Amino acid sequence: MTDDDHSTTDHSTTDHSTTGHSTTDHAAASLDSHSTTDLTEADRELISRAESTTETAFDPDRWGGAHVVGAALRTADGTVFTGVSMPANVGRTSMCAEPVALGAAISEGHDEFESVVAVRHPLPEEPREFEVVPACGACRELIADYGERIGVVVPHDGRLTKVDAIDLLPTRNW
Question: Engineering a disulfide at 29: which of 18, 24, 91, 153 sits with its beta carbon 3.0 to 4.6 angstroms away?
């Protein structure tokens, strides 16, 4: 599987005409100012595991597509844990896939983590493949809480790359 197998879109630049300046997405700005690393074969396998898990759990009939995001987390010893997003009628009780995978690993006694990736399943009306998606802000914080140097696979500049979790939080100061 190559980086070209995953569709990515660059949403890094936003024009704020009313304020007279342009800003970039925090993740994109962070990636531009911090080192990223190329994906390894193990990272590509992690993407495949996330896709497989999401394919199994995806439910197109529930809420217009339940369990649409899946994640895979590799521990320091190479064990992989997966999870899927958990939508709920009460929005704040919904969960992203990354915390589900992290919780599964912790419940099995793991506490050192190497890499994580999230993928989005295409909805039935979308004529595209799976795509790697960046962690949301809350998940970025959570991942960094469990290891600032956990590698997070993200789309950037039309390709997939890996960056330390802390580098996705450019203004974190605690």
Answer: 24
pLDDT tens track for 106-116: 999 999 999 99
- CA 98, 42, 148, 32 torsion: positive or negative? negative
Token pair 């990736």 is at which residue? 117
Give the pLDDT of residue 33.
53
Task: Identify the domain containing residue 63 by its residue range.
Answer: 37-168
23 in a domain, yes or no?
Answer: no
Count up the domains in the chain and report the number.
1
Looking at residue 83, its amino acid is G
Active-site hit among 41, 55, 98, 131: 98
**What are the C-alpha distances in Å from 130 to residues 66, 67, 69, 118?**
15, 13, 10, 10
Instruction: Please report where in the chains the tokens 């597509």 appear, as a residue.
Output: 65
Cβ atoms 67, 54 nearer than 8 A? yes
How far is residue 118's CA from residue 83's CA, in Å, rounded to a whole number? 9
pTM of the model: 0.78
Cβ(30)–Cβ(135) below 8 Å? no
Two tokens, residue 152? 């997070």
